[in-house]
Write the structure tokens for this entry.
Amino acid sequence: MELKDKLVSSFLAFDEQYQVDDDVQQIRSQAIKDFETFGFPSKKEEAWKYTSLKSALKHDYSIFPKKEDAIEYSQIKKYLIHDIDTYDLVFIDGIYSSHLSTTTHDKIDVCLMSSALNKDKYKPVIDNYFNKLAPKNGLNALNTAFTKEGAYIHIHKNIMADKPIQIINFSTGNESSLLLQPRNLVVVDENSHVQIIERHQSLTDHPVLTNSVTEIFADRRAIVDYYKIQNDKETSSLIDNTFIEQKDESNCSVHTFSLGGNLTRNNLNFYQRGERIDSTMKGVTIIEGKQHVDHNTLVHHIYPNCESHQDYKGIFSDKSVGVFNGKVVVEKEAQKTNAYQSNNNILVDDKATINSKPQLEIFADDVRCSHGCTIGQLDEDALFYLQSRGIPHKEARGLLMYAFANNVLESVKIPEIKKRINNLIAEKLGVELGFNL
Amino acid sequence: MLKIKNLHANIEGKEILKGIDLEINPGEVHAIMGPNGSGKSTLSSVIAGREEYEMTEGEIIFENEDLAELDPEERAHKGVFLSFQYPVEIPGVSVTNFMKTAINAHRKANGLEDMPANEMLKLIREKSELLEIDRKFLSRSLNEGFSGGEKKRNEIFQMAMLEPKLSILDETDSGLDIDALKIVSNGVNKLRSEKNAVLVITHYQRLLNYIVPDVVHVLIDGKIVKTGGKELAYELEERGYDWIKQEKAV
């Protein structure tokens, strides 16, 4: 049976097994109909021209993982940022692991989507925000239909979350192949601040497909810093759908570090619904083999006096493929918009590919929009310069690639993450840099 | 220390060096002067091991070892240093981190452990003072946005850090004002000893007022056509290169 048919025919059993509030149930029922209509995206669609889901959809995924697998902290410690104090939401095969997690309801809510979807206490927030941002398409509909678990984060007014929050999804290989659909909701009220780290990690070589949807609402003067660490096994595919709505004077940033996985697609949309908003999107992609990473971004400038900054760097080896499709829409009312976009790539090998496509739709006349895209090889002059100082060829290459990608790390606000990513990049490039940031 | 015999070299099939002979002993300073396009920079690149240049004939013996088969980094480990005419800008790597990487690469090649951090800092401080380099400068990205003078000073700073046996200074005076020229020359002179040697490649005699050569060679059209003492440099400054060409033709 095709995956689509299997999913559609499993819905009733799912809906019965994971009961939720009536309103949410209605949303789910509508969503499965939408998924039936849209199905999975194909390469015929403009937004999927360079990315085929075929390799990710070919497995006979299990949709109902049996139960939480017993995982010890020692097995997963290395995937967590553990040298600082954090709140942790850990999911094993899509099921919440209470013994590995640290939640809170003290001034902020860091807890589970499954309880938010059932308890009256959260109903006003769910009614207001759940499924309000994700555009109607096959993948979002699929995730919505199978909504049951994920992170629920609510930072109340005038609160600075006292520590970063980690959302980590592990898969164990308990199922021979597994489809995961985490659903996260992040609501940050006026004048509040939160830092979130998200990671998907497979612990074995079983095929895993994750189709995750995260909706983030940043109210007036809220600050949201979001870090996505994508460094999974080559048997895992990830479709990350993240949607952010910002109100007046809010400041949101998303850093995406794509360092591994079979297929990774990031759909990242920012909707600016207010004035003097700042939106930042940064990414470092370093892949090899036959890996594929696709960044599909949208910034929708709707009101005047807002800014957006996009800076994506990619290093592609072997036969790996990168895609960057960055769309910036500036509506007629959005005067004095400053929108910057840059996408720089290094193709290490002849067979590596990057498809880079800036898309600017500007309807206002008093704006500053710039975009730049470069594709190149490593600078031979620079290589010789480093070698002539005694740095061996391999290290010199690593150092140059590191230097190329490194500036994206400058805006990372959590030093431990900066250090971690720095080490991951160095490891990835196979070099000992001899120094740390 | 360095013996070059009948060196011929091509770039993209075009012969640039057409039979160079040169011998430099420890403690000596040699200058190679010549008009534009005579092959001066090619010679320095070939000695340092730049791949784009193909050695077609002859040999380069450094400390009794043939350099021809060695990678640039191996030549560096043996003690060859090239101060670039156009130092490359490398955004994202600070001068300090670059120096640490280079020093430790040298040590590794010589079977030594990494230099302890405090020792490294001390060395950097000492050598940067020699070149009158501001501390802030060391945390900037390598050569990025540096003025011409800063770049050259940074080259000599690297030379001071790495303590090479043979330093090749390729047009180190270009882009330097008189103050920077003095600082750079002073740095080079302080690093001179009985054990190391310097090869100064220059268009003008100006630098040779400060770094005084023992031997001056004139390179024209890929060949050394005249060799003399430091007074030859003055003569060239005064009379240009044409008289040598004529003398050679006669």
